[in-house]
Design a protein that fits this description.
alpha/beta, 9 helices, binds S-adenosylmethionine, about 280 residues, globular, seven-stranded mixed sheet, Rossmann fold, two-stranded antiparallel sheet
Length: about 280
């Protein structure tokens, strides 16, 4: 599969598993990703947050209902669009967003400002601090998992944070999202990525003592004004910004030309499929 969603860990520059990189290489990669998302943050809020809203709604709705005591964690919260929906469904309780990017955390903190029980932490959500283990009522994450170095390890760490009765709801972009459309066409122009980790997610959840309730593929209509607007948003304000920052302007210019060459004109509609995993800890 190819890396349209921009996972910088599994692209051409690396044939090694993340665990095989040195500590310095790992830290440099995290810095690069954080910088890319810092630069994307304002544009992401304007372009993608409204377009991704139906998936956020589905992810949050899956944990609504009776929850045990404890905080709700939101790894890879970005600008924190999950927050307004969480408040609507679960009301007043401790909610904690975690994101790597200072730019994202700044916007998330603004969104959280009027909610005294909500906080945002800047940090790496791929392995949660052990202080969270067994404490949380729920973990909800949207479109962050596929960005992480070892998504199966990350989801195991999120499941370990649940207390008995706690729920997990994770939506991510799988390697294949659509047969045709802007995501598929962009992916076809990029180097293949290793998405073999996707088959390890359910075993990782069960190994942590959680029970899988659902594994499905929510799909909603997305509309882009035209191919060029999509490309520019995706590379300046979306999942390819970290790649664009690391590969430079000439790479993006060539990619843009190739992408627009065969793209349709006018408004572009598509129905990409995400993957949604819902589990609980008995
Ligand atoms: C596509 S955005 C999703 C944001 C939000 N959940 C939403 O649905 O709009 C992905 C987010 O993952 C964050 N991210 C990437 N790698 C991360 C890591 N290792 N730890 C924490 N956050 C990370 C990025 O900074 C970015 O804000």
């Amino acid at each position: 599969m190819r890396g349209w969603n921009g996972s910088p860990y599994r692209g051409r520059s690396s044939t090694r598993r993340p665990g095989e990189h040195t500590v310095t290489e790992h830290a440099e990669r995290l810095d690069g990703i954080a910088r890319g998302w810092d630069e994307a943050a304002e544009g992401y809020e304007a372009y993608y947050v409204p377009r991704f809203a139906p998936w956020v709604e589905v992810a949050v709705r899956a944990i609504a209902g009776a929850l045990p005591e404890g905080p709700v964690l939101v790894p890879c919260c970005g600008t924190f669009p999950e927050l307004d929906v969480l408040i609507e469904y679960i009301g007043d309780r401790e909610i904690v967003g975690i994101d790597l990017s200072a730019g994202m955390v700044r916007l998330a903190t603004e969104r959280a400002a009027r909610h005294p029980r909500v906080s945002v932490i800047q940090g790496d959500a791929s392995t949660l601090d052990p202080a969270w283990t067994g404490r949380c009522a729920a973990v909800v994450s949207v479109f962050g998992l596929q960005q992480l170095p070892e998504p199966d390890h990350a989801i195991a760490s999120w499941a370990a944070a649940l207390r008995p009765g706690g729920r997990l709801s994770v939506v991510y972009w799988p390697g294949t999202t659509e047969p045709d459309g802007p995501f598929a066409r962009l992916a076809a122009l990029l180097d293949p990525h290793d998405d073999s980790w996707e088959s390890s997610l359910v075993p990782a959840l069960t190994a942590q003592g959680t029970v899988l309730d659902r594994d499905d593929n929510p799909s909603f209509r997305m509309t882009h004004p035209d191919a060029a607007t999509f490309f520019d948003a995706h590379t300046l304000s979306g999942p390819l910004r970290p790649l664009a920052t690391s590969r430079g302007r000439s790479f993006i210019t060539a990619l843009r030309t190739a992408f627009l060459h065969r793209s349709p004109t006018g408004e572009w509609h598509h129905h990409p499929q995400a993957r949604h995993l819902i589990a609980h800890k008995p």
